[in-house]
Structure formats: C-alpha cells, structure tokens
Amino acid sequence: MSERHHDHRPRNFNHPNTFRAFIAIDIEPDARKELSRLAGSIKALCHGSYPSSDMYHMTIAFLGDITDVQADAMCRVLEDVAEKYKPFVLKLCRLGYFAQPEAATVFCSTERDNTLLSLAQDVYRAAWDVRIPFDDKPFRAHITLGRRVDLSTIRLNSIEVNHVPFTIRGLTLYKSTLRPSGPIYEAIAEIPFISSEN
C-alpha cells in the first residue's frame, strides 16, 4: 500500500468503547446552498426536523457501533478503495421521501451515476473484508434534508430542483452522536481519491 493517505487515518480516538459510525461523501458549497434553499422551501410549509446545512452529506454505508480498532481497519481498506478512483461529478436531481407522508424522511437524490454505484459496491466489499457488520440494504443515492416531516400539505414535485453539479473528491468516516435535539456528526478520517492531475 502506498503511503499517500497515511496522514488521513485516525491516530488517536477519544472513544474508549464503541461509537456509531458511517462512511459518506461530502457536499460542496454550491450544492449545499441549493439543498439549503430546497429545505427552506419545505420547512416553510411543513413541520419537521431539519438539520443545518453544514450537516448535509451522502451516506455510502452505515456501520453502526464500531471500536477504535475497527475504525482504523476500515480506514486502511478505504485507502485501497480510494486508490481506484479519481474525482467525479454528480448533479442534484429530484426530491423524494422515505416512510409515510405524515412523518417522512425527505431527501434530494442525484442523477444516476455508474461511478458512484461502483464506489458504493467497493465500500461494501471493504467493510466485508475487515468483517465489520453494516447496513447492507441496496444503496440509494440521496441527501437527507429533513426527518419526521409532515408532507400532507405539499407535493414535493411542485418544488423545482436546480441540477447543481458538485465534485466527489473522497470518502469520510464519521462519528454520529445521537442527541434529543438531533444527531451530531464528527469527521473522524478523510480519505481522498487519487488526484485527477496524477
């Protein structure tokens, strides 16, 4: 393995037991601004819980509770995954929701992209390789805008989504802390793709 990413692996955790973790890709400012606009349009009409825009991300794999040792092992295999990819572009596409309309998880999807699907499959394989249990339901590209949203007074397809492009430059391992006011996300390690200039 190359030494290229070693500075991005976690050195010392302050979590003596386990912590909730997930692997995600981050959202660039222009797309984040459009997502914030969309969330604001929905929030003006619908009750629900809406995270701040700095928490927007696209989850690739939810790992559940993992140990520090598992986190380090996960980062090592993610480095191998990252070696296979160069930065690539996604575009925001349309609004949708999971669960029931009266208590929905509202999201914005991205246009179908084969590189993204391949990346998700490689991340799943990496988790299997280091024997970390994870939520292996089929990957769906989406960015959550709100939870427990009452959509009974609105049709999401009435809100126009600007197809803003954003570049995916790597993977991030996050720690998730659940609080009554909503989850808090902390970036544990960032694993960049190969530079497109290489």
Q: In summary, what is this structure?
A:
With 198 residues, the chain is of the alpha+beta class.
Plain-language structure description:
The chain has 198 residues and is an alpha+beta fold. It has a single domain, classed as Alpha-Beta Complex (Cyclic Phosphodiesterase, Chain: A), CATH 3.90.1140.10. 23% of the residues lie in helices and 34% in strands. It has three helices and eight strands. Strands 2-1-7-8 form a four-stranded antiparallel sheet, covered by helices on one side. It has a four-stranded antiparallel sheet with strand order 5-4-3-6, with helices on one face. A hairpin with a 6-residue loop joins strand 7 and strand 8 (184-192). Helix 2 packs across helix 3 (114-129). The longest helix has 16 residues, at 114-129. Residues 1-15 have low confidence and may be disordered.
